[in-house]
Write a structure and sequence with these properties.
This protein is 27% helix and 22% strand. It has 324 residues and is an alpha/beta fold. Strands 4-5-9-8-10-11-12-13 form an eight-stranded mixed β-sheet, sandwiched between helices. A three-stranded antiparallel β-sheet has the order 3-6-7, covered by helices on one side.
Length: 324
């Protein structure tokens, strides 16, 4: 069973993650590629204002690497300049081009910190486009690698274990911040970490972008979504593979279940899905009837395209932020 699980992991790596390598029992992806479906910023983080840091827990041996950047300042830009991003993404038989341009006169409308969390197979670099948006809004941004991804040296943990060290990091960063409001933004598997952080006194709200289903369900959707061939070969064994892999990571299925976490959330949550996304279908979250959880469904958007906001999306996002 262990060999079968490793075979499936490596096969998924070959089919879905360009340039990923197996290290122990987890997979680290090429930081320039996320889910092999989206083209992202090719600039080095340091070239566009990001600094790389390492933080180690004071209570455990765990460490994380993260990017950080301060808000853009209008005084640093000419009147006719702007910041922008442009992303091309495919999936669910849909192609999306997501772009947004922000001019200096729109900068600095919100304060605080945005903690940005990538999904399965991604890395901190994959969230730089989203960081551009929040920096233009006026927020500090912090973008860590989840365990088993990017430059992380920690074992892959299905995004279920990172919240404790991230809580420590946020507490440390808050010591030097006047506006301590923090919004956590998580895409796909990263939405699980974001949901766990809602229990932190250092977090005020969360935006969940195409959040994953409970992992045993997500795995069954992910395999045919990524590779029909592998799906035919392994589909009957997925339950066994998932159980073994999660046991190896010491993570339970319930720890990956967002429904129970969001049902009892007591802080504002903006839950964003797409009507064509089989990996995060809106119907899966229909049982959540919580006044703190606002649900939004974007039309005809692929799973990976929901990592960033299009110019047509931002009105809804900013209306929600204003109400915090």
């Amino acid at each position: 069973m262990e060999n079968l699980a490793k075979l499936l992991t490596l096969a998924l790596c070959m089919f879905s993650l360009s340039g990923c390598t197996s290290i122990g029992s987890y997979v680290i992806s090429n930081p320039d590629v996320y889910l092999s479906e989206a083209e992202f910023i090719k600039a080095k983080p340091s070239d566009i204002g990001f600094e790389k840091h390492k933080f180690c827990s004071v209570s455990t041996t765990q460490c994380i690497t993260y990017l950080a950047a301060e808000p853009y300042q209008a005084a640093d830009f000419s009147a006719d300049s702007s910041v922008y991003y442009n992303l091309h993404a495919t999936g669910n038989s849909v192609e999306n081009t997501i772009s947004h341009r922000m001019t200096p006169d729109t900068f600095n409308r919100f304060k605080g910190t945005a903690l940005l969390l990538h999904g399965y197979g991604g890395s901190k670099e994959a969230m730089m486009a989203m960081a551009i948006y929040f920096r233009a809004l006026g927020m500090n941004v912090v973008i860590p690698d989840l365990f088993g991804h990017g430059e992380s040296q920690e074992a892959f943990a299905f995004a279920a274990k990172e919240h404790n060290i991230l809580d420590e990091l946020l507490a440390k960063l808050a010591l030097n911040q006047i506006d301590k409001r923090t919004v956590v933004v998580g895409h796909s598997m990263g939405a699980l970490t974001a949901s766990n952080l809602l229990l932190s006194e250092n977090v005020n709200a969360a935006i969940l972008l195409a959040p994953m289903m409970s992992f045993e369900l997500a795995a069954k959707e992910y395999l045919p979504y990524k590779s029909p061939l592998l799906s035919r070969l392994f589909y009957s064994r997925i339950d066994d593979i998932v159980n073994q892999t999660m046991a190896d990571a010491a993570v339970t299925i319930e720890e990956t279940n967002l429904l129970s976490k969001l049902t009892y959330a007591e802080k504002p949550v903006l839950l964003i899905n797409s009507d064509v996304d089989s990996l995060s279908p809106p119907a899966y979250f229909s049982s959540i009837q919580n006044e703190f959880v606002e649900k939004v469904t974007f039309k005809t958007r692929s799973h990976s395209s929901l990592m960033v906001f299009d110019g047509d999306d931002v009105g809804e996002i900013e209306s929600w932020l204003t109400a915090l």
